[in-house]
Design a protein that fits this description.
Elements (H helix, E strand, L loop, with lengths): L18 E4 L2 E4 L2 E4 L21 E5 L4 E2 L3 E5 L4 E7 L2 E6 L11 E6 L8 E5 L4 E6 L5 E5 L10 E5 L5 H8 L2
Length: 173
């Protein structure tokens, strides 16, 4: 692999404000249960600072990158991603000039099949982000944003910091 990818066991050089929350997976003969957001998780949920506003599911086909030529960005909202099926790489770029991690890029391997890749990822406001499905099946992504959808908070920025082709080359030969 040409690029560096983060998982739960590799939290080095995380962009300021990014949080990885290990999820507990309960399995038995009747199936699997994973708690995805709890109000007692003070690192990812705080009523005044990181409240719960809504939840949605996106389903993306294999090899497809969301926001491939333009990054996704929110001025006021944090996103909280969990990949519940398939496997994805979530990219976060930090354009915040006052941040300790200004100009850093993180790439996160996410999916339920590998314990080290099953976590909740908090994406800070004003950071650029997108993801690509790297599995042979569609990627199912849950998001628990801190604000209700607001088109005025939603932005798109030209992506000059990451060539998704490099990520595709690492996983699809």
């Amino acid at each position: 692999m040409k690029l560096k990818y983060n998982t739960l066991s590799d939290k080095k050089d995380l962009i300021e404000g990014v949080i990885l929350k290990k999820l507990t997976i309960h399995k038995d003969s009747t199936g699997t249960l994973v708690e995805t957001l709890r109000k007692d998780w003070n690192d990812v949920y705080r009523k005044g600072k990181t409240p719960f506003a809504m939840q949605y599911l996106s389903i993306t086909p294999p090899k497809v990158a969301r926001d491939v030529d333009k990054w996704h960005v929110h001025k006021y909202q944090k996103d909280r991603f969990i990949c519940i099926a398939g496997r994805i790489v979530t990219a976060i770029f930090d354009p915040r000039k006052k941040s300790k991690t200004y100009n850093h890029l993180n790439l996160f391997l996410m999916g339920p099949e590998v314990e080290d890749e099953m976590y909740l990822l908090v994406i800070p406001e004003e950071t650029y982000h997108g993801f690509i499905v790297i599995s042979k099946i569609s990627g199912y992504l849950l998001n628990f944003p801190t604000k209700l959808y607001n088109s005025e908070d939603e932005g798109r920025i030209n992506n000059t910091q990451l060539d998704w082709k490099s990520v595709r080359d690492d996983f699809f030969k």
